[in-house]
Design goal:
Number of helices: 2
Helix content: over 70%
Radius of gyration: 35 Å
Number of domains: 1
Distance between the termini: 116 Å
Structural class: mainly alpha
């Protein structure tokens, strides 16, 4: 009986267990190629955050540009006070 058990286990392992493991990992690999719902949600949140930051940066740039052109129009402020005289 023991002599028949070793070849039977080897044949089962070769033709049942090994292909089962290969197909299991192939399905895991295919599942990971697509985004999971949690990943899609996180990606959408990151997209919204990036768009909000882009708007803020554009606003800051326009404010700084307006401030820069506004300072060129004003007369220069005196650099010394009347106490220095």
């Amino acid at each position: 009986m023991d002599e028949m058990l070793i070849p039977l286990v080897a044949i089962l392992a070769l033709f049942v267990v090994l292909p089962g493991m290969v197909f299991h990992y192939i399905t895991l690999w295919r599942r990971q190629k697509t985004l999971q719902p949690d990943d899609e949600r996180m990606l959408e949140d990151l997209w919204r955050s990036a768009k909000a930051m882009e708007r803020r940066i554009e606003t800051l740039e326009s404010l700084l540009a307006a401030r820069d052109t506004d300072t060129h129009r004003r007369p220069p402020r005196p650099t010394h006070s009347h106490l220095d005289d």
